Structures are given as structure tokens and as C-alpha cells.
Request: fold
Amino acid sequence: MDDALTEETAELLQQLIRNRCVNDGDVASGQEVRNADVLAGVLEGTGLDLQTYEPEPGRTSLLTTIEGTDPTAPTLLLMGHTDVVPVSEDEWQRDPFGAERVDGEIWGRGAIDMLNLTSSMAIAMRELARSGRRRRGTVKYLAVADEEASGTHGAQWLTEHRWEDVEADYVLTEFGGVPADLPAGRRLVIATSEKGLAWRRLVVRGTPGHGSMPWGADNAVLTAAEIVRRLQTAGLGARITDAWRAFVDAMGLPEELDEVVLDPGRVREVFELLDPPTARYCHAATHTTFSPNVLRGGTKTNVIPDRVELDVDVRTLPGVTDAEVDALLADLLDDLGDRVEVTAPFAGREATESPTDTPLWSSLRRRLEAAHPDAEVAPWMNVGATDAAFFRQRGVVAYGAGLFSPATSLQEFSSRFHGHDERIDVASLGLSTRLWLDVVEDLLD
Reply:
């Protein structure tokens, strides 16, 4: 590991964290132009041509390319996002935007999601440009806006309106390469697939009245509360997918449990035997999930509300359609259906998957296992959402990758995503920077 590259990546990460590019879903939030400007400053002076895209004011994405010498050779896109999710500052031990470096770790919102990789990719791209060496294949670096609000003003916009600029054969983005100690031994998971998005907004109607006379009132909040209760048990039942089978193989559970974890009618029995973070992941990896996360309603303490909005985060397994989601919600609402309007706040997307019989997978496996001789690389389904989906939808092979030290387990690493006290160890920053350089050498020479 190159100490200079590690330090430069760490310093860049600190700058990006301090820029507070917080994306709350509003079109005016994010203001990723601040981080795009910092990244442009890092890459300027290397001879690279920098392109920026701004579909909305301040929502800036940055692209640069090192063209290969052989038009028939593959193109690799290194893609990181520059926005971060909101934070409850009072719940943190340290300033979430202070980017403090403490005991070999950098603290801050975005430290692992995913300003760490965005920084390491930028430093790697700068090193490739400085070398002056052109490879057979082409490498691109894309620092994209708006990933945290489903890519509407970032990757989705770029793939729909500037495909000729961002087109690639392979994409590397978040999330993978984190050590996971499983019953079968240490595994390094690489995200080869992810669930679909089918968010729904439920507008619940009631009848306004005076808060002093609640008996028998048609209170939209009470109706919404009943819907939330029903959503706790909502679901399409477990489905055993190829991604789940691959993860079960990697876990190496006792033989007597193999039958259970591959039986959709019994898989939940195993969740009780697992630690909570692993159980949550396993449930999400085998179920289409419904999570009521935002509730808006009411105007005044003494007015019975006649309207409540409930936003439900719906994540679908491969093969689950929008029609199935809507049918399940209709069944769940049942007698309340005439009081509720169900809409989709944005166009969702189906689950996506990339194969593993590719030169990029071979490179990642070789490089990661060389760094962790006691581990094996395994495919893994990301139960969240990343910008990789927009590329997989166009037939591009896309993986969530990275290279991390043993300092953080997969369970702990996952808990820091969108959580309190997000942080990354500095050693992992250097390892990821080195990984991108090594993969370019393997794939594009």
C-alpha cells in the first residue's frame, strides 16, 4: 500500500465530508457542485478533459476519460456519488461534518457512503493520468450527484440524456469488499445484484373536526396508524433467489440448516439463530419488504386531521412486478381502500443482476484474495439501491466493490450506512485506491 496515496485519499475525503452536500430529496438540496469543484481541482493539471453536467442548479456531476488505444478493448467506468444523507447531529459523538481523524479513522457523514470510494477513485484516476501511459482499454471516472435520492438528477439523468458520454462495458461502484466472518470462514462480498425500488405514497383521507370531540371522529392519523400496523406484517412471502442460494453457499451454515434456509416456508426460523444485523439482511434478501418511514399530517393540535401522507419504502426481489406490489397493498388496505390514494412518488426500477463469469470478476477476486489470503470472494445481493442499476438495465456489467482492512466487519460496516457515528479507517482508503489501479492494469492493458 502506498502511504502517499493513502494520505492524499484521506485528505480528499475530509474535504468532501466538510462540504455538507446533504441530499434530503428536495431538488434544491445536495448542491453537489461543491464536491464537484473540489474533485475538479484534484484532477486539473493532469491533462484530463473535465466535463460537468447540471440538470438542475447546483446538482453537478463530473466526468473525465482516459481514452484507450484500441477501440475494441473494454471501457471501465469508476463511479462514485458526491451527495450524502441527512444526519441527526445531536446523536453523534463527533461533528458529522468535521471529518475529524481519530485513532486512525475519519469520522463524518459519507465516510463510507460513499465519499471514501469517490475519493479513492479520484486519486486513482489522477495517478493514471499523471503516468502518461495509455492502455488498450478506456477508463472513465464519474462523480455523480443525487444518488441518495435515487439518481433522478444524477445517474438516471446521465444514462437517459448523455449515454454516449458515460457508456461503458464495466462499472465499479459501491458496495463490496468488506470482510465478513461467516460460519464457513472469512468472505469478501462483492455486490453483483440489488433489489428493485417501488416506493409508494399513501394519501389517507379523513374528515376535519374539533380536537375537543374525538369520539367517533374520522381521524386520518388513526387510519394511517392502522395502515402502519398492517404494514408490519405485509409481504409477498419468502422467495429463494439465485443470489440467496449463492449467499447461503458462502455462509456455510450447519448442514441441518441448509434445508431450512432454502425453504421459503421455513427460512424465517433461521433468523432467530442469527445476530440482529445478519438476520435483518437475510430477511431483506429473501423478502419483498415494506417499511413505512415518513408520516406527514395534521395542521394544528386542536384540529382533527383530514389528510395524512405516508411514504413507504418498498424493495422488491427479482421478478416482483409493480402490479404485484399494488395488488398486495390493495389487499392490505382492504376495508380502508376507499379512504386511501396510492401513488408512486417516482418511477421505480426492477431488481438487477450482473453475471460473475467476466474478466472484471476474475480481477477483483484475484486482487481481493491476495490482500486477504485467509478469505474468499463471494457474490452478494445489495438490498439497498445504487446507481449500478441504471447501467445494468442497459446490459452493462456492474459490481459494488472496494478493498477494506479487517478493522471493520460487514455487520458493523453495514450498520454505519445512514447511521450515527459513520466513519472509515484510513488504511481502507489506501487499499481501495490501490485496488482501482490494479484492476485497470488487469482489465485494460
